[in-house]
Amino acid sequence: MKLPRCMRLDPSDLFVFERAAEPGEWAVSGAFVFAHADTATLSRKARVALRSGFLGVASLGWSTLVEVADGDPEEIAHALARHLVTSFGAPDLQTALIAAREEVTFAASLCDLPEGTVIAVHRTPGRDGLSEQFRTLTARTDRPAPVFALIETNDDPDHVDLTRLVERGG
Question: What interhelical angle do 93-109 and 73-86 show, nearest 10?
């Protein structure tokens, strides 16, 4: 079955999340982590995870991007179920396994795509809970170019050597 697997194109996940997922570990959406969270009291790094992170099943770390890969949904559900008991207060393994299978099924529903397709998430909190939007990213084949480039600017008169990260157009 096709499932999301964490990937890292650059080291930014190591800095923007409290804990970064390891490349190659299986992932689920992870929105359930924030189901009862008061978003106003979350740390900056937790807000980044809420907004744009996939939850790594092995580490409970976060990944900005996942790729579609073949995996064993039952193995992943069992690993997640253990975490639901030990880290999230599920009453027992059987109850946790039901919830974990639902998470893995949802994750698999995102992966009806060619193997290797890269997926990103954007979440926004609202009155009715979290809204999730998923998008795929494809590599440009007409020219080799990095996804992001650092560009020095002098846009701000108070900062002489302001450096910003901008998405490369194309």
Answer: 130
How far apart are the C-alpha atoms of 45 and 58, rounded to whole Å? 20
Query: How do 27-28 and 118-126 pair as beta strands?
Result: unpaired
Pick from 9, 42, 15: nearest CA to 137: 9
Give the model's pLDDT for residue 127: 79
Q: What is the mean pLDDT of the chain?
A: 85
Number of residues that make up the chain = 170
Q: Which residues are CB-contacts of 166 (< 8 A; sequence separation ≥ 6)?
A: 148, 149, 151
Q: How many CB atoms lie within 10 A of CB 41?
A: 7
Residue spans per domain, the chain: 2-139
Write down the pLDDT at residue 94: 97
For residue 140, pLDDT beyond 90: no
